[in-house]
Amino acid sequence: NIWKKKTYFSIVHSYSLAKSRSFSSGNEHPKPKGFLGQQQQTNNK
């Protein structure tokens, strides 16, 4: 169950990363980056 959750999170993470990347190319979006970093820290704990 935990492994499934981790895989899901990694998929969502990469998806949101690609999304924010296409966003940053046209708009300024410093918030999503910080939010992603915070989420990663929580996952590492």
UniProtKB/TrEMBL annotation:
Does the keyword Chloroplast feature in the UniProt annotation?
A: yes
Q: Which GO terms describe its cellular component?
A: ribosome
Key words of the record: Chloroplast, Plastid, Ribonucleoprotein, Ribosomal protein
Ranges where the record places region Disordered: 21-45
The protein, known as: Ribosomal protein L32
